[in-house]
Amino acid sequence: MFKKILIANRGEIACRVIRTAKRMGIKTVAVYSDADARSPHVRMADESVRLGPAPAAESYLKAELIIDACKATGAEAVHPGYGFLSERTSFAKALDKAGIAFIGPPPKAIAAMGDKIESKKLASKAGVNVVPGYLGDIATTDEAVKIAHGIGFPVMMKASAGGGGKGMRLAYNEKDVREGFEATKREGLSSFGDDRVFIEKFIEDPRHIEIQVLGDKHGNILYLNERECSIQRRNQKVIEEAPSPFVTPEMRKAMGEQCVALARAVGYYSAGTVELIVNGADPSGKSFYFLEMNTRLQVEHPVTEETTGIDLVEQMIRVAYGEKLKLKQEDVPLNGWSIEARVYAEDPYRGFLPSTGRLTIYRPPAQFGSVLLDRAETQRRRGVETDSNVSAHSASLREQNIPRSRGGGEPRIRVDDGVAEGGEISMFYDPMIAKLISWAPTREAAIDEAVAALDAFQLDGISDNVDFLSALLQHPRFRAGNLTTGFIAEEYPEGFHGAPADEQLLADLAALAAIVELTYETRAALIDGQLGQPQFPEAVQVVRIGKRDFTVAIAPYDGGNLAIVDGGEAVDVVGDWAPGNRLMVADMDGRSRIVQVAKRGRSWLLTTRGAAHPVLVMPRHIAGLAGHMIEKVPPDMSRFLLAPMPGLLTRLEVAAGDKVEAGQPLAVVEAMKMENILRAEKGATVKATAAKAGDSLAVDQIIVEFE
Q1: 575 and 656: one domain?
Q2: Taking the CA of residue 427 as centre, how many other CA atoms within 13 Å lie in the half-sphere pointing to its CB?
């Protein structure tokens, strides 16, 4: 086996590869840019090598620097992770020429599948279903319009070398084509160095389902079941699961066999993924079509690992070394259900604008057994007999940071990340912070476990999408498995404003807020000499959540509190919280509540179940006066076009004196590898421009001022 490998990547995937390599007894080499000098993957590796400045084009994308690092450290092989150089034929060839093993497929397979146009032609020859479309070169916008009309709207325009949701535009009419064709070309050129675009029919009610394939250098190729990846935003996957709630065993077999045939046709080995678009309106499951083949490890590979027990990174390393696969197709298991939620640095409450900055708080739920331990502790405090062996086993696994046996029936949580508290989320790279993965025997249980873990995911310093992920997982349509790639656009047409809270949740939050306030004020009253004679707070409070007022009476006892909300029955609340703690885990007469608590001036912010709730707790005699407070009116900024995110102003479409109409493009801001078009909200006249193309923008920086 290899003695030392280099990981030509960063972040969570670099950490993921290092963990498996260490378990296999292989030494590891990390590479880093200046922006990542203190990143976890650098600390985890046995050695590290600086590549260059923060921009990827000057560091992670320079193949010659990777090869130099291998030679300097004696690394025998390179694992590329995903993104960056992972699907560059030239990189795989350069490694081979230097006598360094590439932990991935052969260069000819990368080349064959890396071109979306050529790959569709190959797939068709291999007997794989393909989507109708035009696969030739398209030179002009007028030509693109003519082709789109010939195919029939809606159509999808795609960069030939694209991937990861980049370089894609959906067009419902000629206007969309004219506006999006050039943007697609630019994204393809800037992200992949290739501005060729092809057009294909957009499948209505589409589900995005992919097949994981695994092959060795001896001609053995398997499919490791499917993943459902239909929950997407702007063609970027958000939640993935394995298996798919739509796929039948017969459909799985038909898909898998076609994908293996394609892999065999290009001489494929290592791990790879064939992406398919499926007509969700066809109950027969026969309407599936080839999209593309990703000749690398996928971001969502953990759900396959959790349901098969197969470490894909280990298999890639063994295959690269020349070993044969030990599994046969009939031996591939499918055990339980797994869900992955991608935690991004973006603000779902502000149109999913990307966020950068320092992670002042980063505390993911304990990777294995955290929710189970909380439940066991609650039961212990209530005096309920528990299985001590289970609790001890979970605690041991949490300390060792290793997964339980895949054959067990106990739900579990896994977090794959590459950041740490105090670290920086940079504008130079992908905004993904972490992947939260749940496993359980059933889909319902896996969803429940993921929601509970998201409640316990503590992040601060930047905006994040944890609330949105929780809301998606709780959505009745998601739980029913009625998914399409249009799910988010269809269910959140006006944007995201937090998951709705039912009456029980609001009442529970009112009780918890009153307990938090009572704890906080009691502690303040006991600080020696601060307030003179201690004045303990009232046990009856008025709790205001939004526009709702609740009257809450609290009776503390040793180990818990009794809470009465609006004169109802007493609720026994068992749970710890102390000032300075962010997380409150409580059992409320059998209802588990995991709530994040933050002080906001005189108020509290309680976050749980996909929404953040501002809460004001007041003594009864003050509550009646609160309605007379004058509301502070925010300043009117409607005369300005403000930068909604940090990024690069690549284009400014207007100048002083120009008249603009509602919906007209004003500027284009590039952030985290994506172009964002800023449009006029209403008709106006431009008074002045405060920025120019090429400027780096901060959040809320003025770009344009109107009359």
Answers
A1: no
A2: 13
Per-residue pLDDT reduced to its tens digit, 669-679: 887 667 788 99
| Same domain (yes/no): 603, 665 | no
Q: Quote the CA–CA distance of 4 and 223 in Å, as a whole number.
A: 29
Helices (runs of H) and strands (runs of E) counted in the chain: 19, 39
CATH number at residue 162: 3.30.1490.20
Q: Are residues 474 and 523 in the same domain?
A: no
List the catalytic residue out of 292, 305, 346, 517. 292
Residue 536: pLDDT band (50, 70, 90) is low
User: Which range has the worst mean pLDDT, 30-34, 369-373, 578-582?
Assistant: 369-373
- Same domain for 93 and 138, yes or no, is no
Is residue 241 part of the annotated active site? The answer reads: no
Distance set, CA 507 to CA 399, 468, 544, 592 (Å): 36, 22, 11, 14
Look at residue 419 and give its three-state secondary structure: coil
Question: Does a structural domain hold residue 312?
Answer: no
Owning domain of residue 60: 4-103
Residue 303 domain-assigned (yes or no)? no
Q: CA end-to-end span of the chain, whole Å? A: 70
Structure token digits, residue 633: 């009116």
- In 360-511 the beta strands, taken as DSSP E runs, fall at 361-363, 412-417, 424-425, 432-440, 458-460
Considering only CA atoms, which of 548, 468, 567 is closest in space to residue 505? Answer: 548
**Is there a single domain that holds both residue 533 and residue 585?**
yes
Between CA 458 and CA 409 the distance in angstroms is: 27
The tally of domains found in the chain comes to: 5
For residues 471-486, give the mean pLDDT.
97
Contact 209, 182 (CB under 8 A): no
Q: Helix-strand-coil percent breakdown of the chain, rounded to 5?
A: 30, 30, 35
pTM across the whole model: 0.83
**Digit-coded pLDDT (tens) for 182-205:** 999 988 887 788 888 989 888 878
**What CATH number corresponds to the domain at position 648?**
2.40.50.100
Whether the pLDDT of residue 627 is over 90: the answer is no
Residues 355 and 471 in one domain: yes
Give yes or no for residue 383 having a pLDDT over 50. Answer: no
Token reading at 105: 């497929």
Beta strands in 122-165 (DSSP E): 133-134, 155-163
